[in-house]
Amino acid sequence: MYVSFFNLREQPFNLTPDPRFLFLSPQHEEALSHLLYGIYERKGFIAITGEVGTGKTLLCRTLLERLDRSVSTALIFNSYLTDLELLEAILSDFGLTCAEATRKAYIDTLNQYLLDEFTAGRNAVVIIDETQNMELAVLEQLRMLSNLETDDGKLLQVVLIGQPELRDKLALREMRQLDQRIAVRYHLHALTLQETRQYVLHRLSVAGGANAITFHSRAWSLMHRYCGGVPRRINVLCDRILMTAYVQGSRTITASIVKRSIRDLGDSQHVAPRHRRAGATPWGRRLAYGSLAAVLVAGLAGSVFFWPSIKPYVERLKLPRMFALTRLPAPPVSPSSAPASPSPRTPTPDSLRTAPSIPEPQSQMNTQLLQTLWRVKTRAEGGVTFSRRSRQAFRVSRAAQEMGLAITRFDTGMQQLQRLSRPCLIAVSLDPSTPQTTLWVFVQAQDDGILIYQEPEGITRISRRLFEQQWYGTVYLTLEASRYLGTMLTKGMQGEPIEKLQHVLQGLGYFQGPISGYFELQTLKAVKAFQRDHQLDVDGHVGPQTLMLLQHVGGPL
């Protein structure tokens, strides 16, 4: 009913798992990468878990689209099977028949098929959805299938997809043999508030209504609070929200529309106001909180006085936060009065061990972006050093979100780094003998060195030889969150974003056709060529990584 009102091509929030609507949040993209890696590297067992409605089935269908013709698949949706029924279902999905309905006959037929596939250079994978429903005996039968292997790798890859109960089942003592054979694991969490916003806007964009609907900020927070970041709940609520807005004749989603939609769904406790405790007044609560705060402050001060050994830890915790809060973003400037780029200076010997001062680079640097990236670095490090990449990536992502930036991580090489025309963050190791790393604000790569930005010195140069000893390939690309809304550009879409995409690809030499604003076959080939040259997943979709890399090497979209 509301499709024509909002100028949509189709309903954007259907519950059916349509891969066209897949929103690749950073964790979904990572989960998909885990799946592809485990299958193509013949790792055997792969386990993907997540709460109800977090997109596991849709991820499974997207995986089937991403696999090439060298991989044959068997997809099992009915997990309430006996061990013999499971073997029969696997053979049937591979297109095999067996003369005898016995376990030995089934396994012999499957083994011969897998050997033929392996000899022909092909791979085979069994994907089982809702695996948490399987009986232990059936899971044990799956473990026995892992014995089908050669000296070069597993003949059969098995993907187990299920709810968190699957992890509990695998943790049982009688399941330890299967649990130990799972080489690749990933758990899907609920979406954050920012990812929820990106998810909704992405589905609207795929349905043709990227700019047809606006949302108030309070509406977003109510939606996320009610749905808890679960995509399926988001779909149900957003479908009701669009219906409510249609009935009211509004193309703007307000908090009242969200509340009305939640009431219509018959579940309002998530947005109900908290009830005050009898006799508790705002003034009484403030007095109680103030007294508690005073006690805590006095206790902390006394602990520092009586136990001087904890004082360094208190100072280390306090100073980085003060530093982060006192550095404010640079005010915007008009083009006529734009200041010159930050002057490159020579760093101190104790800071970066860099080369002498350098002349100002030819292209004018984005001063405000450099300062913002420096604040992201400062907040992410927060007085600590990183010994694990995952911990570093988490803190960088959180700090970037606080500064209004969307971010994605790449592991790349020097040739790729030289192509970047937009500042970013890179991870380096100042002492190769230790696993500890730190962050630098990368400005530009030159023939004889690398330009980085640091405060208060400005832009400094590091010799290329020294840099290559310290950098291990990790890059964090960023983009203003207001410009990146999580939308994936794919074949069949049209409009201004596609026109900008074609302009950028044309400027990079990948797109030779007319600028039409329609994502057709020639644009698809250009996107795939760009992804291939930059070591991305060659899927033809302009998702988060492809979009950000295009922004850094080609220009704004």
From TrEMBL:
Cross-referenced InterPro entries: AAA+_ATPase, AAA_22, ExeA_AAA_ATPase_DNA-bind, P-loop_NTPase, Peptidoglycan-bd-like, PGBD-like_sf, PGBDSf
Residue ranges of the TM segments: 287-307
Keyword DNA damage on entry: no
GO MF terms held by the record: ATP hydrolysis activity
Keyword Transmembrane: yes
Domain AAA+ ATPase: 42-188
One Pfam family named in its UniProt record: AAA_22
Region described as Disordered: 330-364
UniProt keyword list: Membrane, Transmembrane, Transmembrane helix
Name recorded for this polypeptide: AAA+ ATPase domain-containing protein
Source species: Entotheonella factor
